[in-house]
């Protein structure tokens, strides 16, 4: 059973480091879809079925970084970060609410199909 959790800013680095180490191994076949949604931009796909190599938070730049097989993507100034966590700790979805009100949606699958 999954659980939706709000991740406190002071826990972001540790939370996503633990997730990345446990589930995003070099041979992991998992894939991510990334989309930015905002009133000024509408819904804009950033990545589709791209291999997710890691998730990291940098407190100095205040950015949550997605390390993707196609290149890195950063969500700056996250006001809120939510994660859908499966019973084994796998994060299947991340929602980042930025200071400007836009949202970054990341859906992560364990299966094959990543590019």
Give me a quick take on this structure:
With 115 residues, the protein is mostly beta strands. 10% of the residues lie in helices and 56% in strands. It has a single domain, classed as Distorted Sandwich (Protein Yojf, Chain: A).
3D structure, described in words:
With 115 residues, the chain is mainly beta. It has one domain (3-109): Protein Yojf, Chain: A, CATH 2.70.180. Helices cover 10% and strands 56% of the residues. The protein has one helix at 12-23; strands spanning 3-6, 31-38, 42-58, 63-68, 71-76, 78-85, 91-98, 103-109. The protein has an 8-stranded antiparallel beta sheet with strand order 1-6-7-8-2-3-4-5. The mean pLDDT is 90.
Q: How many helices in DSSP terms?
A: 1
Q: β content, as a range? A: over 45%
CATH class: Mainly Beta
Radius of gyration: 13 Å
N-to-C span? 28 Å
Which keywords apply here?
globular, 8-stranded antiparallel beta sheet, Protein Yojf, Chain: A, 115 residues, single chain
Topology, element by element:
Elements: E1 3-6, H1 12-23, E2 31-38, E3 42-58, E4 63-68, E5 71-76, E6 78-85, E7 91-98, E8 103-109
Antiparallel strand pairs: 1-6, 2-3, 2-8, 3-4, 4-5, 6-7, 7-8
């Amino acid at each position: 059973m999954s659980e939706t959790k709000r991740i406190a800013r002071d826990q972001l680095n540790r939370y996503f480091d633990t997730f990345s180490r446990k589930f995003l191994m070099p041979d992991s076949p998992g894939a991510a879809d990334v989309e930015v949604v905002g009133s000024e931009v509408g819904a804009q796909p950033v990545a589709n079925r791209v291999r997710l190599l890691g998730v990291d938070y940098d407190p100095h730049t205040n950015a949550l970084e997605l390390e993707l097989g196609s290149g890195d993507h950063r969500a700056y100034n996250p006001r809120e970060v939510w994660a859908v966590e499966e019973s084994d700790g796998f994060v299947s979805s991340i929602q980042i609410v930025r200071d400007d009100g836009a949202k970054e949606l990341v859906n992560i699958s364990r299966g094959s199909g990543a590019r």
